Amino acid sequence: MPQRIRKPLIVLTLLSMLILVAAGITYRSTTVLVDQTLADHQQAIADEAAEMTEIWLSQQTRILNATVASASVLPLTGNPDTLRLLKLAMRAGHFSDVYIGTISGELIDGADWIPSADYDPRRRPWYQRAVEVGETSFTSPYVDLVTNELVIALVSPITLDGVFRGVMGADTVLDTLVANLSTVKVGDTGYAFIVNEKGTILIHPNPDYVLKVRLQDTETGLARILESFERSPAGTFSYPQGEATNILAYRRIAGSNWYLCTTIPSAEAYAISRKTTMLFVAEMVLKSLAVLALATLLLVVGGVLVLLVFRRQYSSTLQKQREEITGINQDLAWNISKRKEFETHYQTLFNVANDGILVSKDLTCIECNEKATEVFGLSRLGLIGRSMLDISPALQPDGEDSRERLQRILDAANAGKHQVFEWTFHRADGSEFPAEVGLKTLQLDKERLCLSSIRDISKRVYAEQQLRQAQKMAAMGEMLGAIAHQWRQPLNTLSTYIASLQSAHYNNMISKNFVDTLVAGADAQIQFMSKTIDDFRHFFRPSKNKEAFDVARAVANAVKLLEPNLKQDAVQLAMRIEEPGPPFVVQGFPSEFIHVVVNILANARDSIVERRTRDSLAGPGMIEVDINGGGEAVLVQVRDNGVGIPQHLLEKIFTPYFTTKGTTAGTGIGLYMAKIIVEKEMKGELLADNLEQGARMTIRIPKAAA
After folding, report:
1. What count of other Cβ atoms lies within 10 Å of the Cβ of residue 640?
2. DSSP label of 677
3. Beta-bridge partners for 26
4. Which helix (H) or strand (E) element contains residue 160?
């Protein structure tokens, strides 16, 4: 061989060998990278499916924990509140059953299952697992003997102030999880399944494998799979299946001893990856270089350049995906931050409200603000779990049953009407206090809740009572003069009786008949004076509770109290009762109603006296009182022939501290208190108008129930 040819051939051979070695090394590196890409892709599918399962388990766990927190403050018995809580948890978490095993061995079942007489929940695996773990956990899947469905039991211990009270369990059917796993796309023939730490198959597309076959027994190549589980909570594993090779990816599900696995034939995984990654293009280029190892250096350089271009595109794609994921994470962080900000804002408004606020469900308090704990003198936990009836007396001040009245209010609220009413509550120390309550029902997440705003009005009620009593005391001075006038004649008579004793003694006229006559007369005068004192004493005594009373009799008592004053001022009073018959019975405070009538009669007398002084009234002053019981209300009208009420002041006479008599003659609170008593406490109506001569006051009060 000529020297000039041999040398180029040697150079060409050495160059080809160098190209072949370089191509082989690069091909090997690319093959490793392709295998790693396949493994990462399968691992990503397993991670996504595991996260989906973790979210499902987390939702179920949160529902159970919320139910346990509510049950911890309730009596662990088969009472309606506890059973209602269990049934609500079944609907919220789509559980097939929610139940409680108490430390005394009693089973409280939300699905109304009745166990056998020898059934003891404390010996059941679910109860023992909750006691052993000491926190929320779940059992391995099993086939429910009643429904013949695959279920797991979520269990959690129930404690109150660190004291163990029992275990709550919730059976959840795994159909939802099986359906979710069936949607995991693992190629055309691949699939996802779940095993436990011992390899037992828990969920699998083939139902014959569930709870009957271990993963390491399905294929000989999977005999060492448990060693991979122990080394790492996530990874990939290649194993032979017949003449082919499969790729198994797994990840441990957080908070459990379960592993979510995916499996797919390697050939199918390669086919899928060829559509989604540029590395296989580089592999084909390197294969071409191996075949064309004897080609020129130019082709090799060209192939290397092509490889670099594809690698750059692949890196650019990865970088773009990272940027998109970063943007999504930032949006999620912003949304979470805004939600926390809104929650903090509304929680602050809830707690700084001036009124006590109770949120109730089925009359049972489930939340309250700080003002409510202050009003009732109870802690938050002391209020939660109690109903409105638990913190109320059995009877309201008007004698009505608290339960019946509250039910009527709730019926009206459920019809969409906002209710505002007065109610009497119990404090923690047993004392009662009046409150103004605003109550409204609302629908939230398919549940009807009741929102109650409670304002303590004990100071206001006390002030009104003091005003009322003060107005009575203001009338006392005037009535004391009437008492003195009324007693003057009996005292003169008694004085005459005493003086006659001395004269009869000197004249030896004292006999049994004389003494009997003297004693009888003196006793009659004394009884008259005592009766006068009793009438006034009952008038000034405040009424504490509402009661049924006869309006006509109350008006007669008021007339009797003012009778001396009317005679003294030469004012005649005529009282007429239309449609006489059964008593005109109303519900209210009889002493306070007498106070109203006394106040109206006193104003009528003053008006007559003023007209007599100013206009030289001819003839006697006249007050007419008409009582009519027809219809559903009792009507009391008081007419006088006094000066009347100036038309421009007619709308102001019921204003507190407003008087037409001057500050030395009137307090301005009489008619104001009268209107409060009639309209607010007796649900009636008090009106005033002018007549052709004088004025008329009208009282309308609904009749009491039979």
Report:
1. 27
2. I
3. none
4. strand 150-160
Q: Which two tokens stand for residue 101?
A: 């095993």
166 dihedral zone (left: phi>0; alpha: psi -120 to 50; beta): left
How far, CA to CA in Å, does 424 sit from each of 294, 390, 398, 521, 633? Answer: 104, 12, 10, 52, 27
Q: Could you tell me how many residues make up the chain?
A: 706
Residue 142, φ and ψ in degrees, nearest 5: -155, 165
The torsion defined by the Cα of 585, 591, 595 and 596, in degrees rounded to 10, comes to -30
Q: How far apart are CA 59 and CA 64, in angstroms?
A: 9
The 10s digit of each residue's pLDDT in 487-517 is 655 676 677 767 777 777 777 777 878 777 7
Type of residue at 395: L
Q: Which of 553, 540, 556, 546 is nearest to 680 (CA)?
A: 546
Q: Reply yes or no on whether the pLDDT at 486 is more than 60.
A: no
Lowest mean pLDDT among 125-134, 135-144, 292-301: 292-301
**Residue whose C-alpha is closest to residue 191's, from 42, 12, 58:** 42
Residue 298 identity = L
User: Per DSSP, which regions of 515-657 are E strands?
Assistant: 547-550, 571-578, 585-588, 621-628, 633-640
CA distance 388 to 409: 12
Residue matched to tokens 């008599």: 661
Buried b or exposed e, range 387-396, using 16+ CB within 10 angstroms: bbeebbeeeb
CA 410 distance to own-chain centroid:
14
CB crowding 16-42: b at 16 or more within 10 Å, else e? beebbeebeebbeebeebbbebbbebb
Q: What share of the chain is helix, strand, coil (3-state, %, to 5)?
A: 50, 25, 25
Half-sphere exposure of 449 (CA within 13 A, CB side): 15
Q: CA-CA distances (angstroms) from residue 559 to 475, 483, 556, 573, 625?
A: 14, 14, 5, 8, 10
Residue with tokens 């059964």: 582
Beta strands 621-628 and 571-578, pairing class: parallel
- Write down the pTM of the prediction: 0.38
Residue 418: burial class (beta carbons within 10 Å; 0-12, 13-18, 19+): exposed
Question: Does residue 375 have a pLDDT over 60?
Answer: yes
Helix (H) or strand (E) holding 98: strand 97-102
77 within 8 A of 83, measured Cβ to Cβ: no
Q: How far apart are CA 471 and CA 477, in angstroms?
A: 11
Q: Which two tokens stand for residue 559?
A: 């007339």
State yes or no: pLDDT of 28 exceeds 60: yes
Q: Report how far residue 684's alpha carbon sits from residue 610's, in angstroms, rounded to the nearest whole number.
A: 30
- The answer to whether the beta carbons of residues 18 and 26 sit under 8 Å apart is no
Q: At what angle do helices 297-352 and 3-71 cross, to 10 degrees?
A: 10
pLDDT attached to residue 624: 93
Contacts for 380 with CB less than 8 Å, ≥ 6 apart = 368, 373
Cα separation, 516 vs 497, whole angstroms: 12
